[in-house]
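Journal club side-thread
Mid-discussion, someone asked how the predicted structure for our own chain would compare to the paper's figures. Pasting it here so we can look after the session.
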Amino acid sequence: ALERLDQPLTVEHLARQARMSSRHLARHFRQLTGTTPLQWLHAQRVRHAQELLETTNATVDTIATATGMGTAATLRRHFHRSVGVPPDTYRRTFRP
């Protein structure tokens, strides 16, 4: 899944790849990781966005697409919820 963060991924798709039901995947995933597949996916996308904000001059729109968040608004919402600051503020801590 990490190589495909920019693509739309669903629990149903991941379950098909793992050859199990969506419910079984979600239950098993939560037992192993303590989080849901969707929460994990959002966290990975935010981590990738952090890396891009730290190392590139890409716009938030471009980063939203590259991380699979779709829109800048969606990226901003998940990023702020996870990191505590908006993407632009986060970037300024690395690129004053």
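Post-session note: The chain has one domain: 2-94.
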